[in-house]
Amino acid sequence: MRITCPLCGERDRREFYYQGAAVALTRPEPEAGEAAWDDYIHNRENPCGVTRDLWHHEMGCGAWLVVMRNTATHEVLEVELATDAKRTGA
Amino acid sequence: MTRTEGGCVIELRAKSPCDGLLPLSIGGVTLSEAAPGAMTCLMPYKGQAAALSGALEVACGIAAPAPGHSTVSDGVRILWFGRETLLLIGPEPAPELAQHAAVVDHSDAWAVVRLEGPGAVDVLARLVPVDLRESAFAPGATARSELRHMQAAITRLSADAFEIMVFRGMARTLVHDLRDVMESVAARAGR
């Protein structure tokens, strides 16, 4: 599997660290209530298909990335810097 | 130990990171330690990347390089060194740079070695998961990647010469891993 880092270009998977679902970009407000926080902390989708995750380019430029990929085909569909994803409110 | 005024003080001597380990020459490829001078990490403050590049042009005569590249002028080099990070090599940093960026002295932080010779690219290709062909990684190109399992910065100096940087504490491992591969590449080529 290879991931195209927006800064470094196409790189081998071993340079990246997998963090998990990209929920950290949409953290609930402190007063959002128990249900929202419970969902944010504990509940995750486990899709057979397209998923959106946070990866860290640990052995490369050090950027956090939002990677869309297909868990069934291993296809990497889209990669963007987490700072850009956050700015555009995705 | 130096005896002074009746007591002993330890006389400290600076050692380079690869002191006693290099140079090496195996199968036409040489590995030697570089003495790059001062190394300064520059991390621009939010929205200050362009201002920092301008300040570098005034102070050193060269602008900040784009990701994956380095810029060079007389005795000064600037490497792209990761996301929003540059490494200034050679001179002491001008004080004005601190207006635009966090300025951190890295002079003693890195082991810097030079791998040269006709087979240098074959040696590195066994250790680094980056496309090192000249079409993809021309002289002046630089990459942050891993070398075996070490975080490294690799810069192509010319067709047959690379500069490799790892954390200073990894110097012995770096030389060990490179020596291993230099030997096997030379054996494979029958040199």
UniProtKB/TrEMBL annotation, chain A:
User: What Pfam family is a match for this entry?
Assistant: SoxD
Give the record's GO biological process terms: tetrahydrofolate metabolic process
Gene Ontology MF terms in the entry: sarcosine oxidase activity
Q: What is this protein called?
A: Sarcosine oxidase subunit delta
Q: Which organism is it from?
A: Roseovarius pacificus
TrEMBL record, chain B:
Q: What's the name of the protein?
A: Sarcosine oxidase subunit gamma
User: Which InterPro entries does the entry mention?
Assistant: TrmE/GcvT-like (IPR027266)
In terms of Gene3D superfamilies, this protein maps to: Heterotetrameric sarcosine oxidase (3.30.70.1520), Probable tRNA modification gtpase trme, domain 1 (3.30.1360.120)
